[in-house]
Amino acid sequence: MTPYAPPTSTAPNRASAAQPRLHRRMRGWLALLALAAGLTLATDPARAQPTVGSTVRDTLALGWGASVALPEGDWRVAATPVLARKGFSWEVIVLRDARPQARIPLLVVRHSRENVSWGSLPCPEASPAEGAPWFMLDWHGSAPNGTVNRCSRVWPIGDYAQWRSRIVPGSAWWKELGGLDLEPAQSANGFLLVELMLQEHQRRGIRVEAFVRPPAGRTPAQFREAVLAGKGGTEAEMLSTWISVYMASTQLSFLNLSPRPIAALGWPQPGSTASRPVETGKPAASASSATAAPAAAGKTPPSSPVPATAGGTLPGGAGSPVPATAPGTSPPAASPPLAGPTALVLEQQNRDLQRQLEQMRQTLAQLQAATVAATATKPAAVAAADRPFTPRPPSPQRKALVIGNDRYTDVPALANAVADAEAMARTLQAVGFTVTKHLNLTEKRFKQALRDFRMQVQGGDEVIVYYAGHGVQLGAANYLLPVDIRADHEEQVKDEAIPLQRILDDLNERKAKFSLAVIDACRDNPFQSKGRSIGGRGLAPTSAASGQMVMYSAGAGQQALDRLGPNDPERNGLFTRVLLREMTRPGQSVDRVLRSVRNEVVRLARSVGHEQTPALYDQAIGEFFFAP
Q1: 466 forms bridges with which residues in the sheet?
Q2: What is the DSSP letter of 431?
Q3: Pairing of strands 462-468, 398-404
Q4: In 19-69, alpha helices (H)
Q5: In this predicted structure, what is the pLDDT of residue 167?
Q6: Cα-flanking dihedrals φ and ψ of residue 212, to 5°?
Q7: What is the pTM (predicted TM-score) of this model?
């Protein structure tokens, strides 16, 4: 939106000239206010996550109210892939710092708004197993039986190009990302790959991977050896504290929806004129040791120690990186001392680092206090989402009819409809519905099932009808197809198929308190493959009566996706899998659930270059909850 400007024509504009001056000024101010509002929304963390090519600073919005702080930099979004996993997906954002001498030129943020697999953090014992390449492992005070698990570790990458050639092609964790190319000058000295992992029981998870350039005068392997020998010095303390600050900030931003900034990691970089600071000789203690880490308390953290494999990944560790220096080999020889800085300069640099370190410690203490306070006083919506889902016994006033048709005899069969119906029936039972389920109904059985269910509905009931299968639009009406449909012309379809409006009218006549019809039938026209010119793609808009809601899996003229590509492991179609997950979130009203479903389906479909916008028709009165 741009501010109001007068017409560009050179001809006299009498209407404009006749306007009162105050009115013209008001129009300009209103336009400016609208522009300001647009700029405010653009920086709101609750906005959708940025698109490829956009630039972000300070805070990265994740698209559903959560966010994560960003290190100092001009971050450009390089890629936004989705990595499908069993039961959930990682949404990935690859960020590149546009500054030529950035301390952290590459950042990868992986998050899931779904319930991630609990206990899947790949962090092993509290100290690296013999020969393991990673180091600086920290559980940040989390315990095996805690609600929130946190851990971080650091990997040395001596040769970034070699690491990419070995790791990326063989690891799905990395090869599907894109955007990992760096200029030789940015990766010449290798990286310390900082890996932060955070997840909450029966909720979401996030992982952040920051490619940090090592401090001046040390290779990544030398820095690792110094830390393991207890000679990491101020730089190791700075890195450990910075990681703890980032972890605490991430928990507040991601789980508590309270964005918090992080401090810059300001140690001298490779290529600078400064030598590394004089070492203190003290071991690099974990910055979060004051939070009673399990190892310090004599407890055993969750353990899954595994050796590095030849392929460069850790089994169960999501493809964690292996450095160019293999375990058991000698690290590169120490770099010669840098010439130039005097002892006075080095002393000043060390004082600067100590001051930054103290500031980080103060920030960490503030974030830890804020985490305790935020956990005790979460917003109502967040607190409701925190509650684990508990199945409910069936209620006589909650009734559901579930139908799944995919074994069609004369039109193309479907792959997911029966699986979708079975999963929906289980979920509806879990949230307290008495479910009537039918699979692969012929015309006769379809019509009988509707008559039987109609007689079960009583005044004041809460009713859901779910259908997965073929549907077709004829004129302004929509029809659901039985598996034995053999129509050769449009009038025959109208006789043998099931009008959707009939189902809605039946529920209205039975005076149901609330009724929801969910129709996952927006696929390709089933008659096209038979050479029949009957109907078109998608379903027509419908009219819901008072107290009713109707939702289609896709909008008019759109196709509903069964899969997100050939490697999608899910058995359920895109729309239904999202709906199943959202239905079990406690305390979410049905209108909020369905709108969340629509937003998520749109986002996931666009991730594979497809447009699918579920259509919602809402005439409901009052509030209804799947899982109160």
Answers
A1: 402, 518
A2: B
A3: parallel
A4: 21-42
A5: 81
A6: -100, 130
A7: 0.49
Pairing of strands 67-69, 59-61: antiparallel
- Express the helix, strand and coil content of the chain in percent, nearest 5 each: 30, 20, 50
In terms of pLDDT, which residue wins out, 571 or 29? Answer: 571
- pLDDT band, residue 83 (cuts 50/70/90): confident
Give start and end residues of each alpha helix (H) in 472-517. Answer: 490-496, 500-509
> What does the pLDDT look like over 447-490, one tens digit per residue?
999 999 999 999 999 999 999 999 888 888 889 999 999 877 78
Cα atoms in the Cβ-side hemisphere of radius 13 Å centred on 63: 20
Give the C-alpha distances (Å, rounded to integers) separating 174 from 82, 159, 179, 281.
12, 16, 10, 37
Higher pLDDT among residues 445 and 556, named by residue: 445
Q: Could you tell me which residues are beta bridge partners of residue 207?
A: 110, 197
Q: What is the dihedral of CA 394, 400, 401, 407, to 10 degrees?
A: -80
For 255-283, the three-class secondary structure string (H helix, E strand, C coil) is: HCCCCCCCCCCCCCCCCCCCCCCCCCCCC
| CATH number 3.40.50.1460 given to 389-618 | yes
Report residue 581 as tokens.
């997950």
Within 10 A of 49 (CB to CB), how many other CB atoms are there? 21
- The domain ranges of the chain are 1-42, 55-300+341-381, 389-618
State both tokens at 466.
Answer: 């779910």
